Amino acid sequence: MEEDFLVEMDYAGLTARLKRLSDAFVYSTKEFYKSVDLDIEPNWHMIFLILQKNEQMTVMEIAEALQLSHPAIVKLINKMKKRGYIKSEKDPEDFRKYQLSLSEKALEKLPEIETYWEAGNEAVAQIMNHNREILKQLEILEQNIAEADFKQRTEQILKTNKP
Amino acid sequence: MEEDFLVEMDYAGLTARLKRLSDAFVYSTKEFYKSVDLDIEPNWHMIFLILQKNEQMTVMEIAEALQLSHPAIVKLINKMKKRGYIKSEKDPEDFRKYQLSLSEKALEKLPEIETYWEAGNEAVAQIMNHNREILKQLEILEQNIAEADFKQRTEQILKTNKP
DNA sequence: ACTATTTAAGTAACCCGTTACGCAAATGTG
DNA sequence: CACATTTGCGTAACGGGTTACTTAAATAGT
Q: Which residues form a coiled coil (chains A, B) (predicted)?
């Protein structure tokens, strides 16, 4: 077999493996979209879905729902706007906000895109061996980090070891 | 509880969750290093370890061992050089290559850094509930993707569904 | 020996996400 | 009502990684 040093690193390799795996999906998805001539980015998927569910949302609402920082959402939304997938209108009750929603173009293209997403989900299922275990494991990490993150835990451990 | 839309997305949220989790570790580690006044970046860890194991390596060798692209390694190495952690000398047998190794400064600082890494590993173990299951699951995904990546599988599924 | 091909590395152009900062609008408080 | 604080969101500066392209050196092949 081939040697994979990140695997060999064991616990210390976890972070980089998560990133590497995520990238493997992202770049592969990107190429897939290109091959079927779809003018969208992989991670717009989550924006499409959340705006399908909620119709109208603000930047901050999306950021909270996805648990990402607001600048991340701003960037995504700006690109999607530039390509005409997002409609945004000033909130009449709070002029700081813009109510975001899917554009006509987005709604129009969605049916086609959805057939690709369905195939993609099946591909992910295959890669997961049709087993939900990885999702459960991710949830455990997410919850534990929410309780106390890496930095807090590491500092606590050092404090306990020292004296 | 709070709602996490990426979790709700199920299979379609996997990629973004992997990235989000990786980032949670990276940025928390970054802050930890800052708090203990360590002048290194989180993902230099893998470079330090692999050069501790192998003494001398080229950019391509590191890229292969970590299964990352060579430009990724070039960038890491350049930053580490700038901070004085990497020694590089032209390979006398092949002038395209540079043999990379840890500098005196790196070797000097390593003992201290290692105490932090040990605490960090324990923190990761806590976050994993002292259970190796997540590592096994990642290995499954890595292997399945190595056999056929997301794009190939998705195209295959579409081909099978169509006719 | 002398081209043709492969390989090592570096660079450019992108996409992703984060923290830090700034500004304007909304809300709270004396 | 006026001043202070909070909230929404846009931008800048970083750090990470990828693919595509280029250059130079090593290796193949006739």
A: 124-151
Domain A38-130, CATH class in plain words? mainly alpha
The full set of domain ranges for chain A reads 38-130, 132-163
Whether nucleic acid strand C comes within 7 Å of the CB of A61, the answer is no
**Contact residues, chain A, for B52 at CB < 8 Å:** none
């579409």: which residue's tokens? B158
Task: Identify any residues that bridge with A69 across adjacent strands, giving them in sequence order.
Answer: none
How do the pLDDT tens digits run along chain B, 163 residues long?
Answer: 358 999 999 999 999 999 999 999 999 999 999 999 999 999 999 999 999 999 999 999 999 999 999 999 999 999 999 999 999 999 999 999 999 999 999 999 999 999 999 999 999 999 999 999 999 999 999 999 999 999 999 999 999 987 6
Minimum CA–CA partner of A145 in chain B: B127
> Chain D: nucleotides under 7 Å from a protein CB?
7-13, 15-20, 24-27
Closest CA to A111 of A50, A41, A52, A34: A52
- B150 to A45: CB separation less than 8 angstroms, yes or no: no
CB A100 within 8 A of CB A56: yes
Beta-bridge mates of residue B90 = B98
Place of tokens 């930890």: B32
| A55 φ/ψ sector (left φ>0, alpha ψ -120 to 50, else beta) | left
- In a 3-state reduction of DSSP, which class is residue B99? strand
Burial class (CB in 10 A: 0-12, 13-18, 19+), A147: exposed
